Amino acid sequence: MPAAKKFLNDPKDAVVESLEGLVAATPHLQRLDGFPGIKVVFNDDASKDNVAVVAGGGSGHEPAMAGLVGNGLLMAAAAGDMFASPSAEAVLAALRAVTGPAGALCLVLNYTGDRLNFGLAAEQAKAEGLQVELAVIQDDTALPDPDMRRGLAGAVLAVKVAGAAAAAGRALKEVADAARSAIDNLGSVGVAATVCTLPGSQPSDRIAEDEMEFGLGIHGEPGAFKQPVEPVKSLVPKMLETIVAKKTGYLTLEQGSQVGLLVNNLGGSTLLEAYVVLREALHHLTHSMQVRVVRAWAGTFLTSVDMAGISISVMKVDDDRLLLLDAAASAPGWSSQQAACQVDKKPRPVPQGREAQESFQRPQELSELGQRLEKGIQAACTALGNAAAQLDAWDREVGDGDCGATLKQGADAVAEALSSRLPLNDPPATLRALASTVGQAMGGTSGAIYRILFTAAAGALAKSSRADQLSSQAWTQAFQEASETFSQYSGARAGDRTMMDALLPAADAARKSAESGEDDNQCLAAAAAAAKSGADGTKGMKAKKGRSSYVPEGVLASVPDPGAQGVAIWLQAIAECCAP
Prior knowledge:
This protein is of the alpha/beta class. The chain folds into three domains: 11-185, Rossmann fold; 187-326, Dihydroxyacetone kinase, domain 2 (Hypothetical Protein Tm841, Chain: A,domain 3); 364-578, DhaL domain (Serine Threonine Protein Phosphatase 5, Tetratricopeptide repeat, Alpha Horseshoe). 45% of the residues lie in helices and 13% in strands. The chain has a six-stranded mixed sheet with strand order 1-2-4-3-5-6, with helices on both faces. Strand 5 (104-109), helix 3 and strand 6 (132-137) form a beta-alpha-beta unit. Keywords: ATP-binding, Kinase, Nucleotide-binding, Transferase.
């Protein structure tokens, strides 16, 4: 099996080159230059008057830890190779670079190499006269042995608390106490669908396609157990119950406790997924566990390279910890936005436009014009329903295969509205009601297309002085204006192999027929014939717009454009039903 594809040069240079890119893009960051083992990023704008908070660890967890270097967060971060602890020399270099008389606090994730190298560096720094404290972050709650608690994404919240305490000018012991108290009130758990893949390595098949792994570490270490894939609504409660399980004693939450919630993408998941998880976690914490979520974040904070996974961290907060979490901070890996959380925020009603304000209703008695409109609309709906299978068959060749189904969905909604919602004696209002109906019933491009057409035609007809006595010229003018309006918004013209190849010729033929003095039926017949000719002419035409523009030209030679054929079908149905 070949190595996983990555956007890198030589994998062994990836860490240094990544740090160089980060520093180049971030004005306040600087990098120490020394022998190859020194990979340190520090805040070049910060004063040494306050306690320096220093962290680090193996690379592959970006944006942590180097991305958390900034005002109100870390003063410096020491990076190791991929998933490997930084050397004691690198940590010591970081301490020497940023530690002033106020001293430094080292935040260390609970991994053996990190503890040893940070511990050695701390002792060496003390021997040089620096004041150094060390706090170990161990927020993993998935494993049964408390001594095995690894550091997970909850470390980001511990960094935030410690960095804010330092920025506030607190003494070293106070900063360390704030950090340790935050860690003691913190729990995290992660779930993944795929294992991470290091640069230059082969992808792992440890997790099957139909499995998730619960409680694995940020280096891809095996978790507590594997389980079948399940939806978030059942997975998230299981994760939260693990964090606050009373038998483990990891995190105790009484009813009414205040907590901060952090949902973290482990690298290969999406922000869409993270917010779905956040939503479910908010609901479960609030309504099932009956605790108050007062702060919440979702995003990418501490990753495991490209692991498709999500972790949840919960931190119990008091007034002081909340103050520290809210304190201003700026770093590439930390959002400065306020994270105040409103769990049951009610959505506002949709702003109401003219369509919603109008009360569309079918008249008790139909005028002659109303009867003709009803007859034509019913015929168009029936014809589109009958042609759905053929339109879908064409669309499977040149599009996404749902043109007929989508048009039938809209036609069915219009047919249902005929009996109650269409004010058929008033043509402009009828067209506005049609726009509203298809807009709600038809999704995607087709819904927008027909809504624009009906809305524009309604506006054009409304210019006539008597809506119940519309001339052929008024109808054909409205048809033409609607077609041209859609062409303006879509950018499609005749010859682009779209529905415009039926609409524009039909509108032009209807206009010419009306100008020559022909009646409504003759205008409709002319329009239908032109639409059919235009739609048939799309077979073999090179596509310049729409989904067909991505299809090989050889396929287009034998298939007409489905959207254009749809126009021809409903126009032909109207013309036939209205013929004398």
